[in-house]
Each structure stands twice: as structure tokens, then as C-alpha cells.
Description:
The complex is a heterodimer. By secondary structure, chain A is an all-alpha fold. Chain A is built from 4 helices and no strands. Chain A has one domain. In chain A, helix 1 runs antiparallel to helix 2. The longest helix of chain A has 27 residues. Chain A is elongated and about 45 Å long. Chain B is an all-alpha fold. Chain B contains 4 helices and no strands. In chain B, about 35% of the residues are buried.
Amino acid sequence: MEQVPDDAKPATASGPGRVLVAVYAIFAVAATSRAAVQIATRFHEAPVPYLLSAFAAVVYLLATLALARAGRAWWSVALVACSFELAGVLVVGTLSVVDPAAFPDAAVWSDYGRGYLFIPLVLPVLGLLWLRRTAPTRAPR
Amino acid sequence: MITEYAVALALCSLAVATWSFVQAARNRPPARPLLIGLAAIEVLLLVQVVISVVLLVGGQRPGSMVTFLAYLVGSLLVLPIGTAWALAERSRSSTVVLGVACVTVPVLILRMSEVWGGAGA
């Protein structure tokens, strides 16, 4: 297998994708470390939100890695991760608005990510749009 | 933490971020002066670490030592990693990446001050 030709579709980590990967990486690190601290120090206070934070962190890590890598398989992983994230922020966001008592501490996805300037809500949308732009639709090489 | 220094550092970083975004809007790849700007912020961050360590040794305690130290280390890593990621492909997008890295610094500084002021995590 040789290198892809220059006129191929842009890789997900190229051009604007580089910015996307950078923002995803920041969120992956932030969510991972925050969840780690929450689970290590006061897990008993709110197990479900903290586990959700940890889950969100894993999805961010996976999305970052998948977007940073080239290839059809990574593209699919990125698609799944971004879709999960959008579903997660919508479901958890709605739950946290409907039943605030169940989410005593701000998690990444609580209130649609308001504690994080709604970036958790915008990011998966941008990710999915970018994945559509870079979709591997050409015939297999 | 010395509040005045932290605020000054955050403002400097935002200034370099703005500079990055302006350069990106002008369709420029990362240029040397901008990289020197980022290096200057990194030096200011190092000074911030020294100040914090001196205060910690002097007996002051943040709300959560582990969290504070994590932010302290993290604040030193953002710009070098961001720059490495940006320079692997020199385009206007790389310039935006530099700006994003610079915007992260004030956020870290803000969280650090909260933890220093007594917040747990």
C-alpha cells in the first residue's frame, strides 16, 4: 500500500479538522481528569453523574483518537463516537433539566454543557458535519 | 497565587490568541513572531509555577492539592503540545490551533484560582 494521492479527500485531521482535533483533545483531557478526581474523591456523593462523566470522557478520548487518525475504519469509529456524544449531551442534558436533583454536581453533559459554554453540544455537531465532508465515498483504492 | 499576576498572564494569553485568530483570518500559516509570542506566554506560565511553588512551600494551601498541582502541570503542557500539533501541518488552520491553545490558558488559570481560593475540584 502506497501513500494516498494528493487529490484524495482530505483526511479528518487535516485543514479545519486539525482545529477540531485540538478542541476535542482539550475536552478529552479535561473530562478525563475531572472524572478521575470526582470518582477518586467523592464517588459516593453522586455515583451516576460521575460514572456518566467518566463515560463521556472515554467517548471524547475515542473521538479525538479516531479523528486524528486516517483511514476508513477510524472514520467509522469517529462517526460512532460523535453520534454517541450528540445523543449523550441531548439525553443527559434533558434529564438534568427535567430532574435537577439527580445531577447535584456539574458533569460535562449536564444542562447541555452550559458549564462548558455549550461547547459539548456544538462539538459533536461540528464533528458530524466534518465527517460528512471527509466521508470515504470514493471507490476502494 | 498572586491574583494580579494571574490576571495579567490571562490577558497576555488572550492577546496572543487574538493575534493568532487575526493571522488566521488573513490566511497566514504560523509565522515566527507569533511563535515567539507563544514562547513568551510559556515563560510567563513557568514564572507562575515558580510563584505557586514558593507560596506552597511557604505554607499556603489550595482547596485541593492534587487538583491544583494537576492544573499547574497541565498549564505548562498546553502550549508545547498545541504548537507541535499545529506545526505538523503549516496552514491557516494551524494558526487557529495556536489560538485555541492560547484560549485554553486563561481557562486553566481561572480554574487554578478557584481551586487556590478553596474550591475542591
